[in-house]
Amino acid sequence: xxxxxxxxxxxxxxxxxxxxxxxxxxxxxxxxxxxxxxxxxxxxxxxxxxxxxxxxxxxxxxxxxxxxxxxxxxxxxxxxxxxxxxxxxxxxxxxxxxxxxxxxxxxxxxxxxxxxxxxxxxxxxxxxxxxxxxxxxxxxxxxxxxxxxxxxxxxxxxxxxxxxxxxxxxxxxxxxxxxxxxxxxxxxxxxxxxxxxxxxxxxxxxxxxxxxxxxxxxxxxxxxxxxxxxxxxxxxxxxxxxxxxxxxxxxxxxxxxxxxxxxxxxxxxxxxxxxxxxxxxxxxxxxxxxxxxxxxxxxxxxxxxxxxxxxxxxxxxxxxx
Length: 321
What we know:
- This protein is 35% helix and 13% strand.
- The protein is built from twelve helices and ten strands.
- The protein has an eight-stranded parallel β-sheet, with helices on one face. Strands 1-2 form a two-stranded antiparallel ribbon.
């Protein structure tokens, strides 16, 4: 496993991290706690030292905390997220930070996360939505500073609204944030335009989520793909969206001259080819996925020619809406 700096805070993270939304047994259907625990342990065995969870991920904080406490001799860094008090995802324009992240709410949410996980601190505390309208307003930054001083968190970050990378540029430039979490993948390459350069300039860490487009960039989503009843992907890939994805992935495979089963590896290597990226956090609900994804931390980025080809496959759309 290779490691990268998470911004300027002196924290080193595995370039393949662990996205723990899917193990929470809420929006994703099919996870089992036994397999999730085995997968987390195997990830740590293979050098993964960064796990990303959230207050809103069902049982995820509890399961992650259980494993981290069982691995007390290993340095495992855990990031969690504070949901907005008004429960609105993503954050619309025009909100006052007092509606979303007042200091009392931030502290209460963190204490709930600590109780659920059984941990005594989190290495990264993130706001689960963000709006640059909040820079310099409200008492959130004062509260974050206090929580750092109390040793309850080490770093502060935000999870940028879906497909809105430029909505955190003012925050990055303000010096108030240690890291940002953003959607960045072969389809949504917009972060590379302004956000990633700004993060490099200001030494802000970058956590990449949705590198596989919720499964779309694995090469296994087709027009006939179905998901279990109650699984949120039924909405994400509704209508003809799965067919659109199938066509787009087939075009990428043809242009690169790769096999369809190499698509997921290519998508993850695309993300890791950016020096601004600190870690990518694919969801890994099984030991098999852990072994497959961690093997990609081998220092082999895509070639300049491959990146040039992939640059032509940008696809601006928002399947979350």
